[in-house]
Amino acid sequence: MQTAWFSKPVVVSVGVAGGIRNLSNTQQAIELLTTHWRDAGSLKHQSALRACRRAMSGDLPPEIAREAFVEAAREAHILVEQVQPDRE
């Protein structure tokens, strides 16, 4: 298996204190999904874990795994949404 890199990091808030983590690849995502996930076992959690593992084995593009991870993080209320500044 190989680490599949995301095109841009996924920012999440983890732990009791809400520490910010920038996840850049599937290996980091799998670690979080398997060790520190508050909604472990939900369909989106399982889908993200499966997608990240498939991306690591080369069966799925890393961006598909990233999107599945983002959806699971959003469901678990740990995704830090990036706000784009308004341009005039």
Task: Describe the overall structure.
With 88 residues, this protein is α+β, with helices and mostly antiparallel strands. The protein has a domain of 59 residues. Helices cover 43% and strands 19% of the residues. The chain contains 3 helices and 2 strands; from the N terminus they run ββααα. The protein has a two-stranded antiparallel ribbon with strand order 1-2. α1 runs antiparallel to α2 and α2 packs antiparallel against α3. The longest helix is centred in the middle third of the chain and has 14 residues. The protein is globular and about 35 Å long. It starts with a strand and ends in a 13-residue tail after the last helix. The mean pLDDT is 91. InterPro entries: DUF982. Pfam families: DUF982. This is DUF982 domain-containing protein.
Task: Write a concise synopsis of the structure shown.
The protein is built from three helices and two strands. With 88 residues, the chain is an alpha+beta fold.
Helix content: 40-55%
- Tally of DSSP β-strands: 2
Main β-sheet, in a few words? 2 strands, antiparallel
The value of Rg in angstroms is 13 Å
The CA-CA distance between the termini, in Å, is 46 Å
Overall geometric form:
globular
Unreliable stretches, pLDDT < 50, 5 or more residues?
none
Mean pLDDT: 91
Protein name: DUF982 domain-containing protein
Pfam family, one: DUF982
